Amino acid sequence: MDLFIAIFTGTIIAATPLIFAALGELVVEKSGVLNLGIEGMMLMGAALAFWAVTAGYSMPVAILAGALAGAATSLLFGVLALTFLTNQYAAGLALAIFGSGVSAFLGRGFGSEPIEALHRVNIPVLSDLPLIGPMLFRFDAMVYLALVMFVAISWFLYRTKAGLVLRTIGESPQTSHAIGYPVIRIRYAAVLFGGAMAGLAGAYLSVAYTPLWVENMTAGKGWIALALVVFATWRPLRILLGAWLFGGMTILQLQGQALGLEVPSELLSALPYLATIIVLVLISRDRQMLALHFPASLAKPFRPAS
Amino acid sequence: MHPRLELRSICKRYPGVVANDDVSLSIQPGEIHAVLGENGAGKSTLMKIIYGAAQADSGEIYCDGNPIAAHNPAVSRALGIEMVYQHFALFESVSVVENIALSASSAFHLPTLAEKIRNLSMRYGMPIDPHRQVHDLSVGERQRVEIVRCLLQAPKLLILDEPTSVLTPQAVVKLFETLRQLAAEGCSIVYISHKLDEVQELCDTATVLRNGKVTGTARPKETTSLELARMMVGSKLPEMHVSPPVPSEKPVLEVNGLSVKARDHFGVDLKNVSFNVHGGEIVGLAGVSGNGQAELVALLSGERTHDRGDAIRICGIDAARLRPNERRKLGIAFVPEERLGRGAVPSHTLWENAVLTAHRFGTVRNGLVDRRKAKAFATGIIDRFKVKANGAQSIAQSLSGGNLQKFIVGREIALKPKLFLVSQPTWGVDVGASAFIRQTIIDLSRAGAAVLVVSEELDELFEICDRLLVICQGKVSAPLIRTTTDREEIGLLMTGRGMSEGASANGSGDIVLQD
Ligand SMILES: Nc1ncnc2c1ncn2[C@@H]1O[C@H](COP(=O)(O)OP(=O)(O)OP(=O)(O)O)[C@@H](O)[C@H]1O
Ligand SMILES: [Mg+2]
Predict the structure, then answer these.
(1) Domains and CATH numbers, chain B
(2) pLDDT digits (tens, 9 = 90+) for B95-115
(3) Where are the alpha helices (DSSP H) in B185-285?
(4) Which of B273, B322, B383, B401 has the fewest CB atoms within 10 Å, i.e. is most exposed?
């Protein structure tokens, strides 16, 4: 039973940074912009949040610093891709490299001491319930925040006018412009939001998940988040499920390695990535659904007609 | 009193063309003003400049006496200017009500808005279902959505760029009533159309453009359409020659008891559709759009296939299961109703667009595109159909609507098809070019090709067709011979009345041909 609870909670925790990063990227891509630089923004968020803690700021401030760092990094991408109409693939890749380089540079002063991790909540009564308590009510606040973000973003995208505006800009910025929406400004907002979410994801890694600083500590999670958005066919619920699947496979393969399974550990480590992608590919075969959710203008530069 | 809108010396050039050259005009509150001109005269460009969707190189725009400095569509919307775009500004992936909500200033509550759309669109005589997805709509239905969207905003200045090109006559009558009502309430209207009788019926004043310049103004109600046409074209209109059809012995296209369920619950089921088209004749398919034309056309072109191979036979070969390119190999050519997106790839050049369907005409050899041949092929079409474009290198979407239409129709006709399927052949094409396209279609048929024309425009069908079919709610009537029927009978069939007496959908459709 304890093992089951450990796997369950481990899954939820491992999925949290992915949920932040992928939901943020979803909003960006829904607006028709492709920012490949999630990894870089996450690293910047992780570095800044870690630094804020060591500098003696409180946890909420540190996490906020992470989000701001992510947003600031994404602004760089925004200027390149939206104002100067640079190729979005190139700008995004550059951002990924930039973020990992700058964060490594900043991180040289951080030392290798772990910090005290973000506290887990302790809700009276609920957290003490048998089984349900440890499974659902003893996470840190950011795990819940990720779920709140999921609900908020789903609601925003599909229930509000602003969400509709965002989605339709992703389909055709020309048409949006033609009926009077400030396409570039809205895309900037989306990019900044995506950056902040990636920053949160990074902050989660460095102050809660593994509360210490290691260079390139995101270990490709930014790229997985990116894949998640695509294979989830741009739908929030599938992103959530995909993130949990990835989290679950991560924990399972760790357990497997701990048990000394007769499988090369490299293969086991690759398992979460493989399994997530295979499952998502299988469920995203419906062409028509894909066409309906795919932001048709993705990665295409837009300049208002003159 | 200040004019509602005043333009002073608007100039706008694009690479290789001057779209607007020193254009000035003014429109009073409550005035209905027509802007006339040939394809490529610069009408749409001028409208986009008024609306702020394009920026003039020089010149000033005044609204109610105030200059508009930094102009964009958002400014226009705030000023109460609304525009129906020639090529629509609708999002395909969302529903009608969501599209309209995006430009509505009212609170974002879709059920209320949907109810409002349903009621108002009925009142305007352009019923639309607010919950359908736009990508499932025919161009006629999209046109209605665009118009209703603008009318809902109670505009002060309404710009209509060819709003009636794909509307039914009944809807046009209703639209005009609505527009007159609006004008009486003080709304100014700018109206673009190639249908001069409409302009004469509706508009108080007119400005005529040719090659971007204002060539004159007129009071359409006091001017004959011949005079108007002459002001636009600057020369005499071509005359039509319709010789009697010489139908081939065997039909080229046979449709036998074709019944198909609609793709979704908004579509129309086809019910036991049977008809034939012989070589040497032109058959017209009349009907209010959204009555199954889209389904039928998709099945004929091969965009959709059918399990029963002999439901559609082309040149005696079972074709219902064949894909579009296999059908093209049988000698069918095809003009879809949506010119941007289906008929042409908007962001590609004209010669690239020509290669798309002309790859069996020497433009592709051993899998490689022969650029020289492809460009020559495209240039040939441009010359023959007098397409106003900056050569075969022009990007498809930079062409004016009518010119792109001429290019697409020209491209398909140049393939010398045995069976020619064409939807709305002269959508947005000016009077001179329409006559030319119609004549070319007639010549094609008299040279032995079978032609099926799908159109909502009865005048056009009566002008060129030998036999007429009417589609209504997925049922196709027995064929009517053009010379022995009239608009009333067709109109009745279009509304579904009169279907019962004899002209049922079960007829073999193979009635004796007139000789
Ligand atoms: N974005 C663009 N780039 C280059 N040329 C353009 C562009 N838009 C319009 N043009 C050119 O400007 C000219 C005027 O086009 P416009 O669309 O205003 O014509 P129009 O009068 O509306 O014709 P139609 O009746 O066919 O709609 C055409 O020659 C067209 O090729
Ligand atoms: Mg035009």
Answers:
(1) 5-233 (3.40.50.300), 245-331+419-515 (3.40.50.300), 342-416 (no CATH)
(2) 999 999 998 877 889 999 999
(3) 196-202, 225-233
(4) B383
